[in-house]
Design brief:
Blueprint (H helix, E strand, L loop, with lengths): L1 E5 L4 H12 L3 E6 L13 E4 L5 H10 L4 E4 L6 H6 L1 H21 L4 E7 L22 H18 L4 E7 L1 E3 L17 H9 L5 E5 L11 E2 L1 E3 H14 L5 E6 L5 E2 H12 L4 E5 L8 E2 L4 H7 L8 H14 L7
Parallel strand pairs: 1-2, 1-4, 2-3, 4-5, 5-6, 6-11, 7-10, 8-13, 9-14
Antiparallel strand pairs: 9-12
Helix pairs in contact: 1-7, 2-4, 4-5, 6-8, 6-10, 8-10
Bound molecules: uridine-5'-diphosphate-4-deoxy-4-fluoro-alpha-D-galactose (UFG).
The site of uridine-5'-diphosphate-4-deoxy-4-fluoro-alpha-D-galactose has 20 residues, from helix 6 and strand 8.
């Protein structure tokens, strides 16, 4: 299939692009390089473009005979979204609306959308199933939920078949640990701990030690990037016939911040300073997925469920690429 990968130069998009190629598809990356890295795009065609550029989108969809679109080009930082809701709604909602409009215009009817566990807010029931009430507590989660609703209504017209995939904590490095996380600035836990282990930062800060969890720190469901991408491939394969697919993507196992730090210490063999600080605003205490629906309906099973193998791949990526992608 000819697949447009919006945000294909970013962390998840670049892994997805590589997996599409390996599986016989023809990905075309569409990225404005505001966050992504050109060198993370290897064997795929690359279009430098912005999602706000409707004409460029139409031209790209037409020129490359695109049959499906995968969309990874969003802003992803909860804290930043609270600071700047206008920019989050603009990029995450308005630009996606523009993309969907261009798809409608070009009769492209398959869409795989990167959604997030943030649509649930602070749910009462853990692990989280897809039908739990959507009650985002920040503009990031709300902007993703708004796109899901738009997709739902558009699918009702018969002009869109879509999959909304709600990620828990994507991490690790794919393609033999050659495609990893290089966010600037970095805000995600595992790369930050690795930077501390590499001596690139003075310490790792634990944001809050008084949560109602076993060791007082937040618990998250860490999912290997390769497993995450595999679910997209399976979802894409179903969109010939399925109009609406919604899945949580996680392992269902929670690890606390302290457990993640200990795992990095074990994998790296390094010791480093750990500083306990205040809570970060907007962090739910526990987020773990019930991914039974994806297991059953997509036939999705994870290959790297244990945290150590996830951290090993990230550790290798960061050691092999101490300055990230360099672009
Ligand atoms: N944390 C620390 N210290 C740090 C960084 C993070 O203690 O230096 C903690 C956070 O407070 C949180 C946990 O580690 O409890 C994980 O934090 P991340 O920032 O790595 O991930 P989040 O769970 O906050 O965010 C993830 C994705 C985001 C997405 C969000 C939606 O990484 O991109 O889920 O729920 F927006």
């Amino acid at each position: 299939m000819n697949v447009l990968v919006c945000g294909g130069a970013g962390y998840i998009g670049s892994n997805m692009t590589a997996m599409l190629t390996k599986n016989g598809h023809t990905p075309v990356v569409y990225d404005n390089l505001s966050k992504g890295h050109r060198s993370a795009v290897r064997d795929a065609q690359f279009v430098l473009g912005d999602l706000s550029d409707y004409d460029k989108l139409v031209e790209t969809l037409t020129k490359h005979s695109i049959e499906a679109v995968m969309h990874f080009a969003a802003f992803i930082e909860v804290g930043e979204s609270v600071e700047n809701p206008i920019s989050y709604y603009h990029n995450n909602f308005c630009n996606t609306h523009n993309l969907l409009k261009s798809m409608e215009n070009c009769n492209v009817g398959k869409f795989v959308f990167s959604s997030t566990a943030a649509v649930y807010g602070m749910p009462d029931t853990i692990p989280i199933t897809e039908d739990v009430t959507k009650a985002a507590i920040n503009p990031y989660g709300e902007s993703k939920w708004a796109v899901e609703r738009l997709c739902h209504f558009q699918s009702q017209t018969g002009r869109l078949n879509y999959a909304a995939l709600r990620y828990f904590n994507a991490c690790g490095a794919g393609e033999n640990a050659t495609l990893g996380e290089d966010h600037r600035p970095e805000s995600h836990l595992i790369p930050l701990i690795i930077q501390a282990a590499m001596g690139k930062r003075e310490d790792i800060k634990i944001f809050g030690t008084d949560y109602p969890t076993e060791d007082g720190t937040c618990v998250r469901d860490y999912i290997h990037i390769q497993d995450l991408c595999k679910a997209h491939l399976l979802a894409l394969g179903k969109l010939d016939t399925e109009r609406e697919l919604v899945f949580n993507l996680g392992n269902g196992t929670g690890y606390s911040v302290r457990q993640v730090i200990d795992t990095v210490k074990e994998v790296s063999g390094k010791d480093f300073k750990v500083t306990e600080t205040d809570r970060r605003p907007g962090d739910p205490p526990v987020l773990t997925a019930d991914a039974a629906k994806a297991n059953t309906e997509l036939g999705w099973h994870t290959d790297y469920p244990d945290l150590a193998s996830i951290v090993q791949s990230a550790w290798k990526f960061h050691n092999d690429n101490p300055n990230g992608y360099g672009d």
